[in-house]
Amino acid sequence: MLIVDNAPGHPAHLDDFHPNVKVVFLPPNTTSILQPMDQGAIANFKAYYLRRIFAEAVKATDRESGKTLPRGTHDSRRNSTEGER
């Protein structure tokens, strides 16, 4: 069983993805009640990640090389795993 919120980004045919997987959509406007992670952990993670991005932006502007802030998949993954610590 896969329980997902009612976000519009989920494909409508998600129910037919695999015969061994039952997909259940949460009712609208109940995500924060039924998913405790929405009540703080995600917000804290986003705040930490944003602080790291701004700190790196400040470092990039302080460098004299004229190089801008590098952003890529590796950088994002590194920042997100450091946010879990």
TrEMBL record:
Domain named DDE-1: residues: 1-66
UniProt-listed Pfam families: DDE_1
Region (Disordered): 61-85
Molecular function as annotated in GO: DNA binding
GO cellular component labels: nucleus
Domain of life: Eukaryota
Record-given protein name: DDE-1 domain-containing protein
Annotated source species: Chelonoidis abingdonii
